[in-house]
Amino acid sequence: MGSRPCALSGTRSRPASASSSPNCSVLRRPMSEHADVVVIGGGQAGLAAGYYLRRAGLNFVILDRQDRAGGAWRHGWDSLRLFSPAEYSPLPGWPMPRQRGERFPTAGHVVEYLHDYEQRYELPVHRPVQVSDVRAHSRGLSVETDRGTWHAAFVISATGTWETPFMPAYPGMAEFAGEQLHTVDYSVPERFRGQRVLVVGAGNSAAQIVAEVSTIAETTWATRHPPRFMPDDVDGRVLFDTATREEAARKAGTHADGVSGLGDIVMVPSVRAARDRGVLRPRPLFDRLTAEGAAWSDGTMDPYDAIIWCTGFRPALNHLASLGLRRENGVPKTIGTRSADEPRLHLLGYGDWTGFASATLIGTGRTAKDAVHDITSHLPAASPPQ
Hints:
- The strands form five sheets. Strands 1, 2, 3, 4, 5, 6 and 19 form a seven-stranded mixed β-sheet that branches. Strands 7-14-8-9-10 form a five-stranded parallel β-sheet, covered by helices on one side. A three-stranded antiparallel β-sheet has the order 11-12-13, with no helix packed on it.
- The protein has helices at about 45-55, 105-120, 205-215, 235-250, 270-275, 360-375, and strands at about 30-40, 60-65, 125, 130-135, 140-145, 150-155, 180, 195-200, 220-225, 285, 290, 295, 300-305, 305-310, 325-330, 330, 335, 340, 345.
- Helices cover about 20% and strands about 20% of the residues.
- The chain has two domains: about 15-165 and about 315-375, 3-Layer(bba) Sandwich (FAD/NAD(P)-binding domain), CATH 3.50.50; about 180-230 and about 265-310, FAD/NAD(P)-binding domain, CATH 3.50.50.60.
- The two termini are about 25 Å apart.
- Keywords: Oxidoreductase.
- This is Pyridine nucleotide-disulfide oxidoreductase.
- GO terms for molecular function: flavin adenine dinucleotide binding; monooxygenase activity.
- It holds the Pfam family Pyr_redox_3.
């Protein structure tokens, strides 16, 4: 699809997105524009919101800090793939096509799907645009960016977590003379060939990285709690179905065994192979780090060349600091996807605190629809998404 001029404002009868290029990267000068809704973030959650905003006939823009489509999927390690088959990983309106020769789609396939999704629905994604601040006013919200200011009745924040990797503070971290990196900086195991590598973390990322680094390096896996491995036949399909039943039971006031009863780590092929090689043997977390390596509670000390911290992420929400949102359990308080403190703000795709399974491809569409439905109920002449 060829490039077309960016249309940054319009009416509900002729939304701004109607004549926009799906990648509106021609913005050059600071400007001030108006929209019913500004979506911050052009990853899977932002695109799902765009789909329903389009169907509701609203004037909206999607602001993405990256220069290309794909969201966080562009930045995972080279072997990263989905836990679920393509048919269990759709955004609303268009199922993900199957990837030839692959049961579980690769990250590259997901990036292609997100790119094609933007094109298919002609979503008005403007990139690269860096959002610095969101401020509240009597008539709406203003979104400050490096390309100017957008004024909107509502804002949907869908910036994800990949931009804010979390590395816990441990004694001796500053003393360690080797390399330290987070999951976000890991790409291929080859750079660690022949080294002694310590992997920290008990989740899926840690298990998958241990599985591949251990093929070419002496690898130790350290966890705060013993990881729980799921049965070999459990993948994303089973997880989502189980979680859906658990959520339905919770809403009905009854009980159903949930995902937590299945375990924590999905046994994708590489992890199963590592188990069969006998390398998935985590040890309790070290007491402290030293210049050479790690000191363990049993008094032993082991040298390492590199430490890979697979310790998760935090929501990327610095752009909301001016709103002064109250926090609960470390995240802004929400009612569904709507901020409890600023009702013109919705938060989408960060995890279950912004809606059931909202951080997954298949789950983000449901919560995006709920968010847009709430927005349309407050905008005259807007149509609820179907």
